[in-house]
Design brief:
Elements: E1 2-3, H1 4-20, H2 22-32, H3 37-55, H4 60-74, H5 79-94, E2 99-100, H6 102-120, H7 130-147, H8 150-169, H9 191-206
Antiparallel strand pairs: 1-2
Helix pairs in contact: 1-3, 1-4, 1-9, 2-3, 2-9, 3-4, 4-5, 5-6, 6-7, 7-8, 7-9, 8-9
This protein binds adenosine-5'-diphosphate (ADP) and magnesium ion (MG).
């Protein structure tokens, strides 16, 4: 089980990781978008990190919703409202829990994905963050059903997210700015799928 303090710690580490990889994510977006993904996400998480003193001792729903608010308010572009909705829905699902296990995490990730799908009107195979999120969720569920081992399940999820990023290199973008490139988007990995994979990696390394 992971308690509220640990969730807050992990969220801060996600913010630090995004900040660290800001230029890499922006470089990816330079190739198929407008080169702002890393900068966008780092701005959003920077705002979240500034709220951390007020979030000490708050329930997990409040922590995730605060991240959702920061991303919605401070991040321009597509990814702000999309990740913002993801974290807001995740927070709604976590509610007033102060401790979560893998089964809760599965529900939280499911809600986040539904939020992204609803907001972005996208499905898998369109070269978006969903191409990392959906396979990750499926793999986590499958591995957890089989082994009842939470750590193994998260690792399977991370491996599937990484495969999802590789898969985005092979397909044409049909949503977001990258869709303007049509076939020229082939060969390049999706920035949003990459940033999601980084988030999951931090989660994996810290539970
Ligand atoms: P913008 O494209 O507005 O510049 P960002 O560069 O911050 O915004 O984010 C781009 C990322 O957003 C893409 O790599 C992709 O993963 C994601 N994205 C764009 N449109 C959608 C959508 N409709 N559904 C899901 N994800 C999307
Ligand atoms: Mg962009």
């Amino acid at each position: 089980m992971v308690n509220q303090d640990k969730v807050l710690e992990i969220m801060v580490k996600i913010g630090e990781k995004i900040e660290e990889d800001k230029l890499f994510l922006t470089e990816l977006d330079n190739v198929i978008g407008d080169g702002d993904h890393g900068i966008n996400m780092a701005r959003g998480f920077g705002d979240f990190i500034s709220k951390v003193p007020d979030l000490q001792g708050k329930d997990i729903g409040a922590i995730l919703k605060a991240a959702g608010m920061s991303l919605t308010m401070k991040v321009g572009g597509a990814s702000g409202p999309l990740y913002g909705t993801a974290y807001l829905q995740a927070g709604k699902t976590a509610g007033d829990k102060t401790e979560i296990g893998i089964e809760d995490f599965i529900q939280i990730l499911e809600a986040a994905i539904e939020g992204v799908k609803m907001r972005g009107k996208a499905v898998t195979g369109e070269k978006t963050m969903l191409d990392a999120m959906v396979p990750a969720l499926d793999a986590i569920k499958e591995e957890y059903d089989a082994s009842k081992d939470a750590k193994k399940a998260l690792e399977a999820g991370l491996a599937a997210a990484k495969e999802g990023v590789e898969y985005t290199k092979t397909i044409i973008a049909t949503k977001g700015r990258a869709s303007y490139l049509g076939e020229r988007s082939i060969g390049h990995q999706d920035p949003g799928a990459t940033s999601f994979t980084e988030m999951l990696q931090v989660i994996c390394e810290n539970v």
